[in-house]
Every structure is written in structure tokens, then in C-alpha cells.
Amino acid sequence: MLNPDLVGRTFVGANSFTVTEESISEFCLAIGEPNISVAPPTFTIKVTLAESESLLKNSGLDWTRVVHGDQRFHIHRPIVAGDQLTCSSTIENARAVAGNEIVTVRSDLHNSENANELIASSWSTLVVRA
Amino acid sequence: MTAYLVGHEFEPKVFIINRAALVAYANASGDLNPIHQDEEFAKSVGLDDVIAHGMYTMALAGRYVSEIAGSSAVKEFSAKFIKPVVVPVNTDVELNVSGKVTESDGGILKVEVTATCGGIKVLGMAKAVISLS
User: Fold this and answer.
1) Among A105, B1, B64, B91, fewest CB within 10 Å belongs to which?
2) pLDDT for residue B87 is more than 90
3) Contact A64 B81 (CB under 8 A)
């Protein structure tokens, strides 16, 4: 069970994530996307889900029982090779429904070289099965 | 710039999902959860078989949306994961994706995406916002 005090808190990832040409082209190849000049719309999950996983595991949640409930992306500008991203994650909501725990995490990806630039936001709703 | 009217239906498309594709997606995305690769493990946690990453299905729907005006044009994209896509060994599972314009205003398109496997919806409330400018 997630500690309710954590709802509303923001955790800034310690490391920045450098987007490489290889990481974009590997992702594009895996989904059959021919245009490798920019990251596909769901690419940021590569950064955000791992950050949410470590945040929620450290918060006492059983990750082995987690399934992905829904996902939303807002992309302010396309991500390209060379971008350096800093991820901050906020637990926006945590509630129990029929014994399952439902947690929504918002992840904001800022430009590490210009913290004022919000490049993309992602909301992941994760369901911890009872 | 192509103009689209509300109600416009984009050409449906079929995407193939198989075990090899799931391994490639796992490596590309970093989501190495064994329920997406290892049948024995999947069964040990109560699943009937290996299931696709919800995000892989969403990524394919995203590729469909990217074809409208390019990946760079996609400003928002959201979906609920309502049914798992089961991927048996040595099987090509067909994911059918279609899309319809629900709003069209000043170069901003809202597209409702439908994704089904064997006639069953696997993504719910799948929507994209695309900028045509």
C-alpha cells in the first residue's frame, strides 16, 4: 500500500537521460516506424516508466502486481537525438477500487540544459492488483 | 496542407504482433517484464499466455497516427488498456487500427483511434491531437 503522504509530492530523477540516434532508431525499428529523424510519440515511456517504477518501488508498492491502466502524452516539441532530459515525477492520485490500488504518476521531461523548457509530460495510471 | 472534415475516416491498417516483435520492443523500450516474453512466467502469474506490452499496442496505434501528418505533428496521445493482446508462440496476431476525425479546427485535428484484435477492442478512449500547421 502506498503511503498516502506521498500523493502530491514531486521527485526529481537524479540522472539526466541523453537521447541518442541509436535509441530513437531502435525504438522506430521495433514499432516499424520508417521516420527516424524524430522520436515517435510514445518514445518517452522509455524514460518515464523506469522512473515511475523506481519511485513506486521505493514507496512500498509491489511492482510485480502492477498493470498499466492508461497512458497519456502531451508533447510540446518533438524529441530529437542529442536532447538531454530530466524527469520529475509527481504522484498525482492514489486510490483503492475494489481492493485494487490505482496510482497516477505524472512525469515531466524538461530540457536538462534549459530547465525552463518543458518538452513533454506523460501520465501513467498503474493498477496494483489485489 | 490536407484539410480533413469531421467524420473523415482514415484508411484502416493491420499491424502484426508476434513474439519476436515483443522481444524487439522490450529491448527498445527497456520494459523487460517477463510476462511479455516468457510463457512459463506469464502462466505462473495467472495469465493464459504471453501478452503484448500495452505500450507496444499503443506505440503501433501511435505509428498509425504519425502517418497522418508525421510524428512531429502529434501533440497529444492517450489510451486506456482495456484488454490484453495475447500472443501465442509461432503466431502472428493481427492488430486492426482505424481512425476518425472528431474535431477539426484551425489546423488542429482530434482523431479517435480504434484498435482491435479478433474483433475485440484492446485500447479504449484512444485519442490523438494532431497539429497540421
Assistant:
1) B1
2) yes
3) no
Q: ipTM of this predicted complex? A: 0.95
Nearest CA in chain B to A121: B76
State whether B55 and A45 contact (CB < 8 Å).
yes
Per the structure, the count of domains in chain A is: 1
Mean pLDDT of chain B: 96
State residue A130's pLDDT score: 77
Contacts of A107 by beta carbon, 8 Å cutoff, 6+ apart: A44, A47, A48, A51, A52, A87, A88, A89, A90, A121, A122, A123, A124
Q: Residue A107 has which C-alpha cell?
A: 512525469
A101: which 3 cell numbers?
490500488
**Chain-chain contact of A31 with B81 (C-beta, under 8 angstroms):** no
CATH number at residue A121: 3.10.129.10
Our CA-based measurement puts residue B80 at a distance from the nearest CA of chain A, in whole angstroms, of 4
